[in-house]
Write a structure and sequence with these properties.
Order of helices and strands: EEEEEEEEEEEEEEEEEEEEEEEEHEE
Structural class: mainly beta
Strand content: 35-45%
Strand order of the largest sheet: 1-20-17-22-15-12-11
CATH superfamily of the largest domain: Jelly Rolls
Distance between the termini: 44 Å
Number of domains: 2
Helix content: under 10%
Largest sheet: 7 strands, antiparallel
CATH class of the largest domain: Mainly Beta
Number of helices: 1
CATH topology of the largest domain: Jelly Rolls
Oligomer: single chain
């Protein structure tokens, strides 16, 4: 029903979100072949604003990277990052000593809590073909009671994430419960760790020229559907084109009629935390005074310092997918 649509809005950079989510960005970069040092050919960097390259040129961006695209070390406090890598790879390093290379469907869940530094770099591992990258990064808020919890690093490997196949639709259940299928446990202090908070993160893919019905829930929550790739869809008598977000009434089932191309969506849903939010860059607290305290503490402590040789640390080119945890334990994937 079209009255289930509360609002539609264009998708910018970042995407507009609703409480309990703070921020969502979608990165789609068609990176070229990589060099042996896992970056693009230096000749391709000419004419770019290296260190702050956010303008798509030739289909890709370097972001804050100098020779390898990505985000060298930077701090976070007071919230969580959930990084979903559908294509390509992300190299993670942090001030806890944790590290990882994840991608091709993996998700990393990191609770910043009282404070952590990390880097997120995008190594171009293929030297004989292009290196496409598609990822979402979602910021999920923490309530005041949990803003100073210990930082936590968790990997959700693609092989372990439930994917529901409904014939014409595939739903990847990264967080929440989909028709009785429960996602893997999130980080322990997450707002998503309590089922009555109804947090859901689903990546939904629906075949062209078919219909799909999004199930309703019975708990008050915000629900936003991001239409990031496809041709067009219809919800009742309302037409929606790609690169639009759709705020939905969670108490109603919603039937999507898909146009001539396969449609791709990200769904974010959750019970609002409903607390004041003060944000400044990578810090999210409840008051401006707390933001100032966070900045001062970071200046004095660097949230534990940086144990890696480079601010834009990347791992050996030959390494596969892996996670090294703060306690030294190691998980390696093929």
């Amino acid at each position: 029903m079209s009255d289930a649509v509360l609002q539609t809005f264009p998708l910018g950079f970042p995407w507009q979100t609703q409480d309990p989510f703070l921020f969502c960005v979608y990165h789609l970069d068609h990176y070229p072949k990589g060099t042996e040092t896992m970056g693009p050919d230096p000749k391709l960097l000419e004419g770019r604003n290296i260190g702050n390259d956010f303008t798509i040129k030739d289909g890709w961006r370097m972001y804050h990277g100098q020779t390898i695209p990505g985000f060298p070390y930077h701090p976070h406090r007071g919230f969580e990052t959930i990084t979903i890598v559908n294509k390509g790879y992300c190299d993670h390093s942090d001030s806890l000593g944790a590290a990882g290379r994840f991608g091709e469907g993996d998700t990393q869940w990191m609770t910043a809590g009282r404070g952590v530094q990390h880097s997120e770099m995008f190594p171009l591992l293929n030297t004989d073909k292009e290196n496409p990258l598609e990822l979402f990064q979602i910021w999920l808020n923490l309530p005041k009671a949990d803003k100073f919890v210990e930082p936590h690093f968790k990997m959700l490997w693609h092989e372990d994430i439930p994917i529901i196949d409904e014939g014409n639709a595939q739903i990847k259940v990264i967080a929440g419960n989909y028709k009785g299928t429960q996602a893997n446990e999130p980080a322990p202090n997450s707002w998503a760790s309590k089922t009555d908070h109804e947090v859901a993160i689903w990546n939904i893919h629906i075949d062209a020229n078919t219909e799909y019905t999004l199930p309703k829930i019975s708990t008050l929550a915000t629900r936003t559907l991001y239409f990031y790739e496809g041709s067009e869809i219809h919800i009742g008598n309302k037409k929606v084109t790609p690169n639009f977000g759709i705020a939905l009434d969670p108490f109603q089932e919603v039937t999507l009629k898909i146009g001539s191309e396969k449609a791709h969506f990200l769904l974010l849903q959750g019970k609002p935390i409903d607390e004041p939010v003060a944000k400044y860059g990578p810090f999210v607290m409840n008051t401006d005074e707390e933001i100032q305290q966070a900045m001062e503490e970071y200046r004095l402590t660097q949230f534990g310092g940086w144990p890696w040789p480079y601010p834009d640390n990347v791992h050996n080119k030959e390494k596969g997918r892996f996670a090294k945890y703060p306690d030294g334990s190691l998980v390696e994937k093929k």
